[in-house]
Design goal:
8-stranded parallel β-sheet; 259 residues; TIM Barrel; binds zinc ion; alpha/beta
Length: 259
């Protein structure tokens, strides 16, 4: 089986001691394409650097809502740096991760919305899809998805198991990415959401080093664990794991490498 990990953070310091070994392990386990996601200017640069060393790794650039500066002028500077990085590098295949997150910080909602909007505009200008993060911000995310024209589609990453958000996302033409959380026993809505999402809109991801799937929950995650996510989706969709791996691979190709 071959897998396409659409969302990982192999640049994370948790891989500092064995990054190259882990990348080799991922490839040998069948992960023949993957995307390293930027969260700020530094990690976007690191993503590009890692992608430039490995043919099968691609990169995204973006400012995650959780790391926005307090100063608005500073925010615009960082966002224009993201635009510059993304426009100059051929291995950048999306803008992300961008979005809204009111879980830790919710006194800067207006700035978060502006940053999200602006980065969607950059993606549109550069003809790139977007990778969207949302947490505790369902209503505002839905209204931005509804009201902003996302030109090259995108993905709702780390599938938020909220039926309304997933419904709106699908209506807006977005893909839905499933990772380790769909294997957690605590994700009560997961079976319902998996049922809602048609196979041709599904993607898989690890969000590594976070969110390791069962039975490895709590350990450092990497893309070689994607098989557990695939097995769970196959079980819930009542199809062969091979079929999930294949179709999510094709979907990712279509989204990130349109011909
Ligand atoms: Zn992430």
């Amino acid at each position: 089986m071959e897998f396409f990990d659409t969302h990982m953070h192999i640049d994370d310091e948790k891989f500092d001691l064995d990054r190259e070994e882990t990348i080799t392990k991922m490839y040998n386990s069948g992960v023949t394409k993957c995307i390293n996601i930027g969260c700020d200017v530094e990690s976007s640069k690191k993503s590009i650097e890692i992608a430039s060393k490995h043919d099968f790794i691609y990169a995204t650039c973006g400012i995650h809502p959780e790391v926005l500066p307090q100063d608005e002028e500073e925010m615009w500077k960082l966002i224009s740096k993201i635009e510059e990085l993304a426009s100059l590098n051929k291995k950048v295949v999306a803008i992300g991760e961008i979005g809204l997150d009111y879980y830790w910080i919710n006194d800067n909602k207006e700035m978060q919305k502006k940053a999200f909007q602006r980065q969607i505009e950059i993606a549109n200008k550069l003809d790139l899809p977007v990778s969207i993060h949302t947490r505790d911000s369902i209503d505002d995310t839905i209204s931005i998805i509804r009201n902003t024209k996302i030109k090259k589609s995108g993905v709702l990453h780390c599938c938020p198991f909220n039926p309304e958000l997933v419904k709106q996302g699908l209506e807006a033409g977005l893909y839905i990415a499933f990772g380790g959380t769909c294997t957690f026993r605590s994700s009560k809505n997961a079976p319902k959401i998996v049922e809602m999402v048609p196979l041709d809109k599904m993607l898989i991801e690890t969000d590594s080093p976070y969110l390791a799937p069962e039975p490895l929950r709590g350990t450092r995650n990497d893309s070689s664990n994607l098989k557990y996510v695939v097995e769970k989706l196959a079980e819930l969709k009542n199809v062969e794991p091979q079929k999930i791996a294949q179709i999510t691979y094709q979907n990712a190709q279509k989204l990130f490498f349109p011909v």
